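Tutorial sheet, problem 5. The two components below are modelled jointly, 611 residues in total.
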Amino acid sequence: MSARYVIRRLLQALLILFLVSITVFLLIHIVPGDPARIMLGDRARELDVEILREQLGFNRPLVVQYAGFVGDLAHGDFGDSIRAQRPTMELVWLAAPASLQLTGAALLLAFGIGIPLGVLAAVKRGGVFDRIALSFALIGQSIPAFWLGLVLISFVSLRLGLLPTSGIGGLDHLILPAISLAPTAMGMVLRVTRISMIEVMNEDYVRTATAKGLRPSIVVMKHALKNASIPVITIMGLQVGALLGGAIITETVFAWPGVGRLAVDALIQRDWPVVRTVILLAAFVLVVINVLIDILYASIDKRVQFE
Amino acid sequence: MMAAMADSTDDSTEDERRDRWSHRRQFLLDQGMLAVFGGTVLLVIVLAAFLIPMLSPFESNGQNLTGRLQGPGWTNADGQRHWLGTDGLGRDVLIRVFIGARFSLFISFVAVFGSLMIGTVIGLVAGYRGGLVDDALMRLVDLQLAFPLVLLALALVALIGPSLWNVILVFTLTGWPVFARTIRANALMLKKRDFVEAARGLGASSVRIMCRHILPNSLGPLTVVATFEVAKVLIFESSLSFLGLGVQAPTPTWGNMMADGRSFLNTAWWVMFFPGILLVLTAAASNWSGDGMNSMIDPRLRRR
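Model answer (structure tokens):
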């Protein structure tokens, strides 16, 4: 892989991050009205609004404000929460492990169910099992995580008294939120696995392996699945944003103390600096993941660089 | 779905080839059925959203405090039956679910149509013009795709205030990149084709080529993306509404009904269940029709 490609891709990512910072900075300013007033709400005292305006520098020119904002970001200063009076970064840092735990568990479920079903569907393509698997995937992608969460709490926790309704704790607390969050990703993993398997199984090397008289199960597992897994990982990387979105509301339903719930609470309390930090970090994570995937992809498939 | 039929070994016998062809026709027929099935379910839901509130004896905000949280099938003192039960204020869940359907469907159809328009213009120009214009417009797409959509939509609605048109605006402004990407890819492919070269040779203007040649040939993929987007916006809109950042109560939406139902998970599951199941059905119907159309128009299927 040429160094030029990597450098070009990194520069592009930097440009995007720069644009992201401008957008996020401008979000509060594109709304008509006084930003300090928007943050504190209509019932706040004029004095408090004045103090906040001074504190956040809203009475300085926009360019100066932006320069200050980016300068702070460069020093790792994402601003302080209005309600908690603590650095927003600290709040996100405290909430991150819970979110990682939840999304990790959901992804594990999604891959654990989606990949085997996708492989089987590809092997038996066009058949009854294929159709059932595809419908299963499609319905999974049509279920909102928060509704599934409500249904599970209502029937599994409250009616059957099986698992805790909310909060973080042992493995038993993790099961229902993870099941609620998994179906969307599972549907996607299943479909992408199936398509890439079908494509890979038509490749010459898989035909050769079959022609050599290898057992079908070995051909599928060793030759096809290994090569089909690259697109699966790529597409899942692109879907991290969708997963984060689902997690935001799932966390709220299950009172799961993660970043999503932090963001929703901050939105409701108009704690704009916290919201801004979560958006910035989420965008940062998305951009970095996509660059890494592109570079990984280019190092595997040389054709990509020349497009 | 598609590559299954596209394997090309030329040493196959005539019989094998005919066999494969009939397989493929069967497959296309199945996919067509899938698209029709999804479309029909969607149509039935739209019709129900119009008819059920008109035929129902109840008002969507008609409260009955003596008949609160009654289960599905409960008959009130006047002999009127609440097929899906009543909510915490004794309102009929059935009529509210379908009034909610009107709002949800309206929001997602209008927002998707809006982003389709914006995305089409941007994608057409970027793909056809190429060069710097393309670079600049595609960076704009990248920028938008760098944000987690739900979070961005939540923040925007929280800032500009939750209302029907604000929600539509936010989903229109956040939804266009996928359309722009789709039509750009199509324009890149089509602009090198003979009929476009021919039109250019005959002196057709860029605008004419874009509108008369490239756009009509891109409607298939755009329609497919639009059906998937409708499903996506339906779910996102309900999520916003669920968090109180959608159309405001007492106007029923699927999201705010589910939020209401959260208080009665133990006693009255039907309050949150029915809006959700209708949402799943509508989103699935939309995805079904998109899937069906997608496999019908996929070029890899038409190869032979």
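Marking note: The domain at 75-287 of chain B is CATH 1.10.3720.10 (MetI-like fold). Full credit if you identified this.
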